[in-house]
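User: Quick sanity check before I run a bigger batch. Here is a single chain. Can you write out its predicted 3D structure?
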Amino acid sequence: MALKGVRVLELAGLAPAPFCGMILSDFGATVTRIDKAPQNFLDTLKDGKRNIAINLKHEEGRNIVRKLCRVSDVLIEPYRPGIMEKLGLGPEILMSENPRLIYARLTGFGQNGALAQRAGHDINYLAISGILSFLGRKHEKPTPPVNLLADFAGGGLLCAFGILAALLARQNTGRGQIVDSSMVEGAAYVSSFLTRSQSLPIWGRNRGENTLDTGCFFYDTYETKDNKFMSVGCLEEQFFQTMLKTLGIEGQLTQFDDNEKGRKMLEGIFRTKTQKEWSDLFESTDSCVYPVLHWTDAPDHPHNKERNVFFNSNAMIPNPAPKLSETPAVSSVAKKEKDQWENIQEILSEIDYNAEKIKELVKNDTILTTGKGKL
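Assistant: Done. Predicted structure follows.
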């Protein structure tokens, strides 16, 4: 696997940091998650990672993290600026002890600036980046795309990219560096095409009035007879004409027609057949018209099956992407899960803690456990 041999410490957080760690784990890194409590039910992206719950209020707990950082390649931390410094775990200390350490700081607003100390969530980061103002239909309020754009694309994914870039640079310099990953900046960067294309004909109008934001009737979704939907993306003339022919309205519409006229006509036609009937009709065409699959049905689509898009279709767990021909990634879900005692012993043995010392750490609540099993 591409990242085999890379050791990563992930300080437990929500959404973006676990996703960043998941990516590195899927591609072969050994990821150790440092939890605040022995059980973490909120982290649904924890598969394939080792974990240990450490009480960072204890000096010995902080020392354990320092020692683990000395034998690690990457640290992912999701706290507000200054928290790690207060714990004595800031980059100045950890990188002086391990100059090769990649210290990744994943936050909403970054390590400095007027908002750096403020709390926020995906919707807020999108708002401050300016990108949220683009999202939504005409005459409706801005609508965030769940929390995918800032938390996961601009946050976890770009942080993972920054870590990989820093690891590559380290091969030349021998030194680690700080990765300052801000979700505001990440959301803006992911949206570069959107902001830099405003002079093109497809943009430049108000929200919901442009070609790609449901402002055009030939780039939208339409309800079918069985209350499902079809996606229409006929931007190019040849695809548009093929769609009209398949719908049986060839010559009755052009891409320059009034949007309300076109939308009303397509709405009426798509409601005459079920999603399956339309899908079967469009299956043999090249017209950029496809069914909007319910998320539970996506794993059963023939293309997704053939490409092994999902590792576990019942749980809707996607396989890692992209696919590498020589060193393919493996879903973290496929990795054998160890119990808490196996994890604790394996992790602490790497910094020379023996069984007696581990028992002492558990007894004084430096290492937190559920109390199940035996050491």
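The chain has a mean pLDDT of 95.

User: Great, the batch can go ahead then.
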